[in-house]
Amino acid sequence: MKILIADYIYTQKGFISKQAVAFTETVKEINTLEILKEKYPNAELIQTEPNSILYPGFINTHVHLEFSANKTSLKYGSFMSWLDTVIEHRDDLMGACDNTLMQKACKEMLSSGITTFGAISSFGNELEVCEETPQRVVFFNELIGSNAMYADMLYGDFMERVKASQNCTKASRVTPAIAIHSPYSVHPIILQKAVNVAKQEKLPLCAHFLESQAEREWLSSGTGDFEAFFKKYFNTSTPVTNIEEFMHAFDSYPTHFTHCVQATPKELDYLAKKGHSIAHCPRSNRYLGCGRLQIEALKLPFTVATDGLSSNDSLSIFDELRATLMLHNDIPIQALATSLLKSVTSDAAKVLNLNCGEVAVGKLADFAVITLPETPKREEEIALWSILHTKEVSHLFIEGEKYV
Ligand code: BEZ
Ligand code: FE2
Question: Can you list the domains of the chain with their CATH numbers?
Fold first, then answer.
């Protein structure tokens, strides 16, 4: 048993003070230090620095580790120019992305307090690193392929990867999962097969959806920047699906849709009605010129996620949260800070169906302790100060074990 003492604990009821947490792999009790010491006299006491706040470990629901080598290769500013450079530099970037680089990316996330991440994997190359990293990893095996001629072969390869991730040892903290690349890049027949597998095996499911204006135009009318792209790389001139058909493919299984920046209010309402959620990647959207997701109007749960280093400059969840505050400059800042912390803790855990994301009895003891540079003058501003002042966490626990 361990007992952790911090000035504040972030809970569903707000920040509480003068309390400590007793835990093993899971949280056993939240009470005053005196009572906990009396009840668990042999527990190890962990006294954090003054002005520390105990948060549940943060959750980054959407990251692509395999693109961690990108610094200046990919062109930012517009989605299509970016996609062209992904095709141009893909082999170089993947070749340069060895296990050491991916371990560095996991470490960067860990330092910023991320105890769980959703790894989107095209080839399964990240599996070894994800098995070895201390973090909880929801391993999203990605299905891609719009060409019917190759669809069966690509589906077979995808299922092999799904099976490999299902064979990870329990100790690795890997949860197998399924990702659909996007409406424009996945043939509807294999898409439905993959959704059925997710449903049957109860695997978390995600899909990129309506990231760019070009995607919307291609899916709605077969025109725009994607027309030349598909002519050039696939010698095709019509999209394999449309927005409505794609959305309906997920009707019977809650899915985590990434981006949705170009979705209409009606489409977003439909996703909400079907119990789906959104991964919001503000820096990625800004860097690729995709626009701003109107989070203030959402009626469905959303998470804030970093996406990969293919469309970002860091994998720090606090860098992402600071950018989110800036992108949504019309939303009152204190309320936004509060809702963003929820989006990367309890809301994200619910989306990924994990028993973490809250400091509460019975939850996994995944914690991130942050330390403010001075005593917060007003309690109602702690959420904002936490986001603005945190570069690295001061302590981090996963399943009760200390990693920072
Ligand atoms: C495809 O396989 O159809 C595809 C892959 C990447 C981008 C666009 C389409
Ligand atoms: Fe992504």
Answer: 2-56+357-402 (2.30.40.10), 58-352 (3.20.20.140)
